[in-house]
Amino acid sequence: MDIAVQPDGKILAVANETITDEDWSHLDGVRIVRYNEDGSLDNSFDDDGILSLDFDNREVIFDILLQPDGNILLGGKSYIPNNDYNIMLVRLNSDGSYDNTFRSSGVSFYDLDYDIIYYFNSTLQPDGNLVVTGAIGTDDERSNIFTARILTGLEASEAPLLITTDPALNDLLIYPNPASLTASIEYTLTSSQSISINLYNLQGELIKTVSNEFQFAGNYTKAFDISKIASGNYIIKLQTTQNINYINFVKN
Question: pLDDT by residue (tens digit) across 194-250?
Fold first, then answer.
């Protein structure tokens, strides 16, 4: 549950609905309510002041965020049965309708490839983009902390920056970023294992393999040539035996 007060004094509140089936309960759907300053329902918000969201995936909303343009961002998680949890973002216009300029439908799901999202907290940056932090894990592994930066103006084909903590990897850094001719990836392996580093475009196509080898524990710096690739946004995927890490990279 979360509450946000708009600059005009109206109050937004979100709550997760619980459904009881025989002898067990589960979350199913979300309600967003907007009140006038006097506590009455604001009928300019989805006609009656109450908006229900239900994508049949056991949604949970953690945060309401107000954008400077008056749009409303909802951050939460969505569970796909027999699969795993995804980060879920919903962007609404100020009247409660879906903002179709955000991922074409106003709703976006980001699969972290983990069984569980325990919680997360989201914050709007001054440039309007979103930073999400939280804890994720699997049914048989301990949780990891993740940080994601999501560009709220992305088209449907584009991907967010996502960096997850890896117990075998420390001090992951790419520089310079943006870069024009060459860039370097710096990291520390806490244990010996196989590691691969690949550069992808935002359509998921492999552009360049930086490294694919077995490495002993220690400090590493990998420089790679980017002079012949087109300018734009890219994703660097660094995979160890234990985890996959993604870094947003910009070629000038």
Answer: 999 999 887 778 899 999 999 998 889 999 999 999 998 888 888 887 777 777 788
Spell out the residues 6+ positions from residue 245 whose beta carbon is closer than 8 angstroms to its own. 163, 164, 166, 169, 172, 237, 238, 239
Q: Which two tokens stand for residue 35?
A: 């009140």
212 C-beta neighbours (distance < 10 Å), count: 11
Residue of 68 and 111 predicted with greater confidence: 68
Measured distance CA(166)–CA(132) in Å, rounded: 17
* Residue scoring higher pLDDT (201 or 172): 201
Do 66 and 86 touch, CB atoms closer than 8 A?
A: no
Length of the chain: 252
Domains of the chain, each with CATH number or no CATH: 1-163 (2.120.10.10), 166-252 (2.60.40.1930)
Instruction: Give CA–CA dist 231/201, Å, rounded.
Output: 11
Instruction: Please return the burial class of 80, using the count of CB atoms within 10 Å of its CB with bins 0-12, 13-18 and 19+.
Output: middle
Q: Has this prediction a pTM greater than 0.90? A: no
> If you ran DSSP here, which 8-state letter would residue 181 be given?
S
pLDDT for 35-65, tens place per residue?
Answer: 999 999 999 999 999 998 876 667 788 888 8
Beta bridge partners of 161: 149
